[in-house]
Specification:
Radius of gyration: 37 Å
Strand order of the largest sheet: 1-2-3-4
Order of helices and strands: HEEEEHHHHHHHHHHEEEHHHHH
Distance between the termini: 99 Å
Shape: elongated
């Protein structure tokens, strides 16, 4: 048989032993929308050529006296041998009494159902991990730490904060981690809120806010928006389970200062004694004081640089008395308030020492954060402008100070 020339027109009226060159030369005759080039090796295989120049492999056969036509794929993506194999497979399927279109539809439905089953199996814990990973880059370290603590399993040894148990308890959201997102109904959240509200309303209230934000995030994500009820945590019963937060008002009074200072200055550990006094005299948050480094203290120009949660940092004056507290402290490491027993080398919150000093001074229920409130209230006694006090304490302008 004579090999056709490269420029020879393709005869669409007869079947051919398809070749790459023949497929490339095939073009739709003028006046027609499409034509089919038949293959001799695989009788059901066709090459469809459209007026626009598109070319694709097609399987064509008769089913119940009707023409069945299935597109295999673009000629640029399929080889001729691959298209023949697919056409032969469809021919065998048809000869076995099955309609390939029905089988393909059933397979797609099975895949879709399997995907739905997998989606319905997604738990809150699965989505929570994705949520944390995506939001970490936009959160402050404290916010990230709060979210991580929400799902801790507990059972870790701890010397404080366990009410005598010696082991930490699971985070507020830990009990919900195994709940499927599709099962996280308002009733489930209400039962959870009732338990948390009875056992630990303050931590539970923070967990509730985190849970609401998480559900709102899920409602905007393609993978989860069809699985969650974004309003599951906003019911009246859930809100009432936690109640309204009560603002703490504990603070030192003017006539309690002498007794408090006397008791704190008798604490044997000079680091603990100094840190409690600096917390009161600076008005800074406890974590801001405990995270002070020696590089933040300038004894020459009498100022301290404090890492701020509102701004990046702020400077406050270093008074003569504060200098007398800080200069004698041991320089064990980079931390101003260091500890020989702490894993980080920095002193942890001295709650026990604070409680003991208050008992000795006869002062009822004064928390560590109460020292910060004391600075704010006692500064009024000295007629210091509110704006200056707010700057020293690191309050956001026109927010916390004016609200309380």
């Amino acid at each position: 048989m004579t090999r056709p020339k490269n420029q020879e027109k393709v005869d669409f009226s007869a079947p051919h032993d398809l070749t790459t060159g023949m497929v490339e030369r095939a073009s739709c005759p003028q006046g027609k929308q499409q034509v089919f080039l038949r293959d001799t090796k695989s009788p059901g295989l066709r090459v469809r050529v459209t007026a626009a120049g598109a070319k694709s492999f097609v399987f064509e056969a008769k089913l119940n006296r009707n023409t069945l036509r299935r597109t295999i794929g673009d000629v640029r993506a399929w080889t001729i041998d691959g298209a023949r194999a697919e056409a032969n497979r469809l021919r065998v399927t048809l000869d076995s009494g099955f309609d390939p279109r029905v089988l393909d539809k059933q397979r797609e439905e099975a895949k879709l159902e399997k995907a739905k089953e997998l989606a319905r199996a997604v738990t809150l814990g699965d989505a929570w991990k994705v949520y944390i990973a995506e939001r970490t880059k936009t959160w402050r370290p404290r916010t990230l730490d709060d979210h991580l603590r929400m799902t801790e399993p507990g059972g870790k040894k701890a010397n404080r904060g366990t009410r005598g148990r010696g082991l930490t308890i699971p985070g507020p959201i830990y009990s919900l981690l195994q709940v499927r997102l599709v099962d996280l109904t308002p009733e489930v959240v209400e039962r959870w809120a009732r338990t948390q509200g009875e056992e630990r309303p303050t931590a539970g209230r923070l967990a509730w806010r985190c849970l609401k934000a998480f559900l709102n995030w899920c409602s905007t994500e393609t993978d989860y928006k069809h699985l969650v009820n974004a309003q599951a945590a906003t019911t009246r019963k859930t809100r009432e389970s936690f109640g309204k937060p009560v603002a703490r008002k504990d603070a030192l009074e003017r006539n309690q200062l002498a007794a408090w200072f006397k008791a704190v200055r008798t604490i044997e550990n000079p680091v603990v004694s100094a840190v409690l006094q600096v917390m009161l005299l600076s008005g800074a948050r406890e974590n801001e004081v405990l995270s002070l480094r020696w590089s933040d203290v300038n004894f020459h120009w009498r100022r301290i640089v404090i890492k701020d949660k509102v701004e990046s940092s702020r400077e406050i004056p270093l008074t003569n008395y504060m200098v007398s507290l800080l200069e004698p402290l041991p320089r064990l490491n980079e931390w101003v308030f260091s500890s020989k027993t702490s894993a980080s080398g920095a002193l942890s919150i001295p709650s026990k020492a604070m409680k003991a000093a208050c008992n000795e001074a006869g002062i009822d229920h004064l928390t560590i954060h109460g020292l910060r409130r004391s600075f704010g209230s006692l500064a009024e006694w000295l007629d210091i402008p509110t704006g200056i006090v707010s700057q020293i304490m690191g309050h956001k302008p026109s927010a916390t100070a004016e609200k309380h």
